[in-house]
């Protein structure tokens, strides 16, 4: 089973991924039930603090609650005793037979954490491949041509050139989204039909200034970073992520940035890729687009 914490982590991806020995979510909670020091147990098990997760174990120990025998019992206990910042806990605590998804905030940023068993991880790579990935950078190889890459997640479309069979996608994961000032309620990826990634810098630079004002923020920002027609995409992204601890990887069909912010929030991320990369890595591409559209990979 896997545990993932999407929070202020030191990882370039801004998340922590931990492999656990338990077969099910229920098994893990039963194993922790009754521990004398839930905080210490969680930090040891999950590689660090998980905001609010200790609350259910504290309540169980203080009230002498028996361990849950079924997933339904665990769901009831979570809704009653797990601390989350939400008016409606049932919408922020989502437990199925194979996965638990929880959303809350730590008064500074939003966060979400997940328990996913091996069965559902294998069955839903188009939803979970990026969530469960902790290896930087993502692979850079691509398909020699763009086979049909069917979108399964809503995206925003910016029509900069004549539409064609290929497209570029921008996925920017930031702590304060310029669209809505939250870090989990992102508006989703931006797609530019008719381009491959090597064409992107020149097209953005040549675009009309008034037209550019109507673009999504990601594209306006990238255009500002491209200071001349000779400026490469890689040069623009190195300007964007200039801190020495930032990471920038640019390939022919995917560019990826882990921009270091500070010791408090760690990194944010920006991925630019085209359909040639997406065709070669369909599960990663679909799950990354989903990651930018909703905090719960099973939503939609």
Describe this structure in words.
It is a single chain. This protein is of the alpha+beta class and 300 residues long. A hairpin with a 3-residue loop joins strand 10 and strand 11. It is elongated and about 70 Å long. The protein has 13 helices and eleven strands. The protein has helices at 25-32, 38-46, 54-63, 71-81, 89-92, 118-123, 125-128, 200-206, 209-212, 217-225, 233-240, 275-280, 282-291; strands at residues 2-6, 15-19, 93-95, 99-105, 110-116, 156-157, 167-173, 190-193, 247-250, 254-262, 266-274. The strands form two sheets. Strands 6-8-7-11-10-9 form a six-stranded mixed sheet. The protein has a five-stranded antiparallel sheet with strand order 2-1-5-4-3. It has two domains: 2-123, no CATH class; 156-291, no CATH class. It is 32% helix and 21% strand. The two termini are 23 Å apart.
């Amino acid at each position: 089973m896997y545990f993932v914490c999407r929070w202020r982590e030191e990882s370039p991806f801004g998340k922590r991924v931990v492999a656990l020995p338990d077969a099910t979510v229920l098994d893990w909670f039963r194993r922790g039930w009754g521990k004398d020091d839930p905080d210490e147990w969680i930090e040891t098990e999950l590689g660090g603090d998980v905001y609010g997760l200790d609350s259910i174990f504290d309540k169980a120990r203080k009230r002498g609650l028996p361990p849950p025998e079924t997933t339904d019992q665990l769901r009831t206990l979570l809704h009653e005793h797990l601390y989350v910042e939400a008016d409606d806990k049932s919408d922020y605590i989502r437990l199925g037979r194979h996965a638990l998804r929880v959303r809350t905030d730590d008064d500074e940023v939003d966060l979400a954490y997940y328990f996913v068993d091996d069965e559902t991880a294998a069955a839903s790579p188009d939803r979970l491949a990026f969530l469960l990935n902790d290896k930087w950078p993502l692979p850079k190889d691509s398909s020699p041509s763009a086979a049909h890459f069917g979108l399964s997640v809503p995206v925003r479309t910016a029509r900069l050139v004549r539409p064609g069979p290929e497209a570029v996608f921008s996925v920017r994961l930031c702590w304060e989204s310029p669209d809505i000032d939250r870090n989990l309620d992102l508006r989703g990826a931006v797609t530019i039909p008719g381009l491959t990634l090597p064409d992107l810098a020149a097209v953005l630079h040549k675009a009309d200034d008034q037209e550019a004002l109507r673009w999504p923020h990601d594209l306006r920002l990238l255009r500002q970073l491209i200071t001349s027609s000779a400026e490469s995409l890689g040069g623009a992204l190195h300007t964007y992520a200039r801190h020495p601890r930032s990471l920038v990887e640019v390939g022919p069909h995917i560019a990826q940035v882990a921009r270091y912010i500070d010791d408090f929030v760690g990194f944010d991320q920006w991925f630019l890729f085209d359909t040639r990369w997406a065709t070669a890595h369909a599960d990663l591409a679909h799950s990354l687009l989903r990651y930018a559209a909703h905090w719960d990979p099973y939503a939609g």
